[in-house]
Request: fold
Amino acid sequence: MKRLQDGQYPFREEYYPLTAMVMTEAPPELEVFLAAQAKASGIKIVRDEPVELVCAAPDMETNRFMVFWPSGSERMHLLVPRHLATGLA
Reply:
């Protein structure tokens, strides 16, 4: 599995330092949207490879997300600001 380098990472229209981010399961509705955006853009989301998605939809600003599909999980994961993550132990 590749490690993310220290730096700035996208979440929606903002960029955050890696130390302020955490990887968590994407909500099912967002997972469906992100998968559709990746497919429409010709971007493949492969296991254990972080992918930055640029998402655009009518009535929505262009947003960027760092997604990750880890081995052994059926769920897509998303890098989010720590203060927005829920359900973490």
